[in-house]
Design goal:
The structure is a single chain. This protein is mainly alpha-helical. The chain has a domain of 165 residues. It contains 11 helices and no strands.
């Protein structure tokens, strides 16, 4: 009887030990980090932005320095403003693949615009400088992409980009365009729902947000300065004419001073006549100065309003980005909590089942076994008594 009870206890303990493996809880966060290939795409694309900005700014500044034409200078400023704003839109996309493809497409479109498109005469004789810079930037980007993909993928993507740039040219220096990512998905036969499978882990999302804020902080002052310079370029203020007028007045005054020293009587009479003849001119000049000061005040107010609008737009954009990151983080936390509770519910159900089995084996199995053995022993004793 004792040996059978011991064997039953050993059997129960064996079942419990084998069931302990079911109590291992693996808490999955439900957050998929970005693949290493996409992380490399994001890093290389954003490193390229520095080269792009430097190339465009240096070339545009040379065009400004070498050009005397007002329209060419205006176009050079617009090139810097629109090129850097457009690149900022292409590189900061949710998907690193979309950012890579769209940045590549825009760089190729800009090269085609200055080489054979509507911008081939935008800066007059200096247009070739912009064309050469754009081709160098495109070559630099393709050199970076060769290290991120196989030779076959690079060749296929390069062919797609060239065809896309020819089929969707840029029409003017404001660079209006649409994203090339959807066309690339169709080219690669990838579904829209399969294109973006994850936004990355929480540290990756926060790092992306940090990069965006750093780019805004570095680019916004430059863009505002260029826009103010463009505004001043098209206003009625002409600093060269003012400086030339002041120089002429100074030279004339020096000549009068010399003549007065040589002929005092003549100069006294000349001064009287000159005062009489110049009085209407001085009155007119005073009125003109008042008008110019009024115009300058109006233009200053307009510039202040433009800066205020840019600041408000920047604050709104930062607020939208912050709200988007907050929503994404909330959704990720909600998925994590839901999955954790589902896992815990399954574990608790399994634990209850094993507790019930344990109670059956420990309490009811020995009782039933003892009853059965008692009956057997009673039968044997009865048969022995009869014999």
């Amino acid at each position: 009887m004792r040996s059978l009870s011991s064997w039953g206890l050993v059997l129960c303990l064996s079942l419990l030990v084998s069931g302990c493996s079911l109590l291992e809880v693996k808490l999955e966060s439900g957050i998929e980090p970005l693949p290493q290939e996409q992380l490399s795409m994001r890093v290389f694309t954003r490193e390229y932005a520095s080269s792009f900005f430097a190339g465009v700014e240096q070339s545009a500044d040379l065009i400004l320095l070498r050009s005397d034409d007002l329209q060419s200078k205006s176009n050079a400023l617009m090139w810097k403003i629109n090129a850097e704003q457009t690149l900022g839109q292409t590189i900061f996309q949710v998907s690193p693949v979309a950012a890579m493809i769209d940045t590549w497409a825009f760089t190729a479109q800009m090269a085609q615009f200055f080489d054979s498109g509507n911008g081939k005469a935008l800066f007059g004789e200096q247009t070739q400088l912009a064309a050469n810079t754009s081709q160098q930037l495109l070559a630099d980007y393709e050199r970076r992409m060769q290290g991120l993909m196989s030779k076959a993928d690079f060749t296929a993507n390069q062919q797609f980009i060239r065809e896309y740039a020819m089929a969707h040219p840029l029409f003017d220096v404001s660079f209006p365009r649409v994203s090339a990512f959807n066309d690339w998905l169709s080219f690669r036969k990838i579904g829209e729902f399969d294109a973006v499978t994850t936004f990355g882990s929480v540290p990756e999302v926060m790092s992306d947000m940090s990069d965006r804020m750093a780019m805004l902080a570095s680019q916004t002052p430059k863009l505002l300065g260029w826009k103010a310079e463009l505004f001043a370029l098209h206003s009625n203020i002409n600093s060269k004419e003012v400086q030339q007028t002041l120089k002429d007045i100074s030279e004339t005054s020096a000549k009068f001073q010399k003549l007065m020293n040589e002929s005092p009587q003549l100069m006294s009479e000349l001064a009287v006549d000159l005062r009489r003849e110049l009085t209407p001119l001085l009155v007119q000049l005073d009125a003109s100065a008042e008008r110019n000061l009024a115009q300058l005040s109006v233009e200053r107010l307009a510039l202040e309003k433009m800066v205020e609008r840019e600041r408000i737009a920047l604050e709104q954009m930062v607020d939208r980005e912050r709200q988007a990151v907050t929503k994404e983080a909330d959704a990720l936390v909600q998925r994590t909590v839901t999955q954790v509770f589902e896992e815990l519910t399954g574990v608790i159900k399994s634990l209850i089942l094993y507790i019930v089995l344990f109670l059956l084996v420990v309490f009811f199995a020995p009782l039933g076994l003892g009853v059965w053995l008692g009956k057997r022993i009673g039968l044997k004793q009865a048969s022995m008594t009869k014999s």
